[in-house]
Design goal:
It comes from Formicincola oecophyllae. This is TetR/AcrR family transcriptional regulator. Keywords: DNA-binding, Transcription, Transcription regulation. The protein is mainly alpha-helical. It is built from twelve helices and no strands.
């Protein structure tokens, strides 16, 4: 039975449920198990990015990670679980940067928005992020859980973090920013950051992705966003 759209929206807009969906395994692992698990995830990531989801077998992943198949299955019962762990681990390390965005008036609003845009553009143009995007878009039709993994661990967390940051910045500068729907604004901001450079890189088209070009897109995104959401 399909889940109502408003229920999905409420789940991903609720910081507590979002945190629960990305929290690590509840059972504490010994240092040795943590090290072995990280070793497996690292090896799996290389295989997924090289062969895609469908092309990656547990045998190849075990060989790349330097473990036996038995050891692999002791940590992950399926390829789907392993891919989710790799995706979650990648997102956790990258998206923590959202929480460090300026939340005081020490950094002017436009400069803070430029910093946020620069962070997103740099993150999305990373080789691993591009590879994961291609895997999910290319194989989600046959493996629907890939889309759910992408939404839960990447997009929903990004939107939630940005929305909360926009709310904090609005409270500081109500004369500069008036956002009616912070989550919609977060989605708009993300889409603006993907123009010109990111979309072309996803399709491996030639594009100027120099620091100067990225900075120019970040500045334009910040200015445009402020005009859209001016009081």
């Amino acid at each position: 039975m399909p889940v109502p759209a408003d229920a999905v929206s409420a789940h991903f807009q609720n910081p507590s449920t979002l945190h629960d969906s990305i929290s690590p395994t509840a059972l504490p692992l010994s240092p040795a198990c943590q090290k072995r698990r990280a070793q497996i995830i690292k090896g799996a990531g290389k295989v997924f990015l090289r062969l895609g989801y469908e092309g990656a077998s547990m045998s190849v992943i075990a060989r790349e990670a330097g473990v036996s198949k038995g050891a692999l299955y002791n940590h992950f019962v399926s390829k789907a679980e392993l891919f989710t762990a790799f995706f979650e681990d990648t997102c956790r390390t990258k998206l923590d940067a959202i929480e460090s965005l300026p939340r005081t008036n020490d950094v002017p609003l436009q400069a803070a928005l430029e910093e946020a845009a620069l962070m997103l553009i740099t993150m999305l143009s990373d080789a691993i992020a591009l590879g994961l995007y291609r895997i999910i878009v290319g194989e989600a039709e046959h493996f629907p859980h890939l889309a759910d993994t992408f939404w839960r661990y990447a997009y929903a967390r990004t939107l939630g973090g940005l929305a909360r940051w926009f709310e904090a910045r609005m409270a500081l500068s109500p004369e500069l920013l008036a956002i009616e729907d912070p989550y919609l604004a977060a989605e708009q901001f993300c889409m603006m950051c993907q123009t010109r450079i990111i979309q072309r890189k996803r399709f491996m088209l030639p594009v100027d992705d120099s620091p100067q070009a990225i900075q120019a897109i970040a500045q334009l995104t910040a200015r445009s966003f402020m005009r859209i959401h001016a009081p």
